Amino acid sequence: MSALITSSRISGAEIVKELAFFAVIALLMSVMILGVETVDRPTGLELAVRWDLVVTAIISTIIGRLALILRREHISRVGQALLITAAAVAVFEMFVRFRDMDDRWASPVFLDMAFGSATSVIVAVAFVTIVFAIAYFSMKKPGAEEEESGSRLSSKIQLAYRTNTKKIGALGIVFFIIFPFLFGENRSAIDLATLVMIYIMLGWGLNIVVGLAGLLDLGYVAFYAVGAYSYALLSQHFDLSFWLCLPLAGIFAASFGIVLGFPVLRLRGDYLAIVTLGFGEIIRVVLINWYDLTRGPDGISSIARPSFFGFAEFDRRLPEGVMGFNELFGLDYSTMHRLIFLYYLILVLALVTAFVTVRLRKLPIGRAWEALREDEIACRSLGINPTNTKLSAFAIGAMFGGFAGAFFATRQGFISPESFTFLESAVILAIVVLGGMGSQIGVVLAAIVMIGFPEMFRELAEYRMLIFGAGMVAIMLWRPRGLLSFRDPTILLNMSKKEKVAGEVK
Amino acid sequence: MTDNVQLEVEHLTMRFGGLVAIDNLSFTARKREITAIIGPNGAGKTTVFNCLTGFYVPTEGRLTLYANDGPRLLERMEGFRIPRNNGVARTFQNIRLFTGMTVLENLVVAQHNQLMEASAFSLAGLFNLGRYTSAEKEALETAKFWLNKVGLYEQADWNAGNLPYGSQRRLEIARAMCVNPSLLCLDEPAAGLNPRESAELNVLLQSIRDDQGIGLLLIEHDMSVVMKISDHVIVLDYGKKIADGNPEAVKNDPAVIRAYLGEDEDDELPPEVAADLHLDPNA
Fold first, then answer.
1. Where is the signal peptide (chain B) (predicted)?
2. A128 and A191 co-located in one domain
3. What is the 3 state secondary structure string of A359-415?
4. Which of A145, A369, B100, B267 is geometrically suited to a Cys-Cys bond with A212, CB 3.0 to 4.6 A?
């Protein structure tokens, strides 16, 4: 073994030192998390010790680290694959013991499998073979040119994406339009798609503020709340229809954006973030405490559902003289009609947001936002009014938040301050940052990853949060600036977009 | 005399707490002339610029800009209003380009106010109305003119941050000119340039003066630039004006020599100390 791993680059002692270091780290991390468990005994709560888990954690860390050393030093492809397989077995062992072992001194599960019944032997061998094969073939040969193939592949993908952004966007739109036809009977699919679409719209709205104008806004949910409550209250107290309230909700949210923005937009960076966070909380606390108007924590229920543009309703039982949607189109009554209509409604609202953002980016106001993000002092020296420019970004972002809020209220039929917590702001911001600041398609991907995946894998219970965390760490490592963080110029003189992109990707 | 004045600075004083950065400074800069402000480090040159361009509000004094449409008092204006409508444009000592945007975009952003008006605060632009498209075309023509002028037409689609240093300096000047100012303030435009680049800069600045017919105010340490192209030199030391005149007169002004080279200290040293220091009186 030592002949296998020692090379001219690294001595055995150094390897032992490194492994010992990581073993200690693994010990420190696992001893509290895995090593002890509170157990409910008849005598009261007791601490149970699970040393087997700590030991397997340390062993898998050591083996994995050894594989990494080999990889780093370009030694022995077979050795690397073997070690990775061994580490995988150790992790598997740890996982199984963690979930359903009662006897802490039982012999390793994997050994039992390997020497057990015919089926378990086959499963064990297949596991080892598959992991080994994946490890072996995904590894580059020792001494092969470094980093070559990987970076070439990623730059190829990048080039393909950036030269075809419009086509990819159009394909995405077509997909979302035909989505109800693909999953028309599946209620939960439509519901989930609607939910994801709300977050896509919120992400696009916040993208104007954070991605384009570079103003870190941690209280975006306030505008969402303003939109939702404007619709709920207007429709309940004044009996206004959704179609009239939608623009009003946008206007209210935009006015709140301006009112908030006026005093705080002289702040920058962290300070602005803190103030916007505070504003988000103020709105929520007011909603909770202004009982006469908002009915506080009880929320507002039975909010009116939208009609089909005022021509028809979606309800099963209708008062005399009101046309039903199914009658209008000569269909049989189905509860899916309303859901699909809501889906298309949010799709259209989101697309309007995207269209306006893309257009604004190429207009003087959008260029000024981006310039302001780059250098505020230079902007002032060019006669750009920083306050108005920031305010316009804030107000337009808030307006789309307000539209989304009104939609949320009419879709849910019930709203309460619970729906507008800081966590929502954080999720929306995470979508924007994860997608890559300023990228429209990035927001879509990020919303699917952040909202869609956790909902889809609800059966995995708390493990999905673990996977979610691991995914976030992976993105921080490989794409720290977001999934699709590229800036396309708004105007080109000599080059085609393809040439410009090719020059940057190289 | 007054027809020809571009900028009149009267009794400008700027105090930061107890520190007097500029002390009762008065000077004029004339139209179609290059006025240079020179002085040792810390003399208050950049502070003068910051007062002129609205980054600081002067403690005392009056700053009058004679634009095409009459005099304006700069010290009363909000910073971002000063560059508007034939106002004052400036560049910075440490270049401040929009590095992530292309060279062309930098020049288009500089024409923000005209374009904003044409786009009717984005409404006309959103629906691509004719009045906006024609204004944008015009802005592009201006940008192209300045790209050619500073020799960056080929690099128009590069990101500004990828340009070599000398080109970034020229781009910053072009960007300031796209604001269509009546007075251009340049803060050390030749800093970090090699001799060939600074010779090109001289040509560019002279052409801005002669062809655009605007006044230039520049802070500069590179005497090969200052002496060659300035029509008028003002020397500051510790916030006070110590000389004012044409380059030749300033160069030979004893006060200026003292400010730059210090007192002739040899005379003040006792002879034995001078001998200890091995100072050769003939050196």
1. none
2. no
3. HHHCCHHHHHHHHHHHCHHHHHHCCCCHHHHHHHHHHHHHHHHHHHHHHHHHHHCCE
4. A369
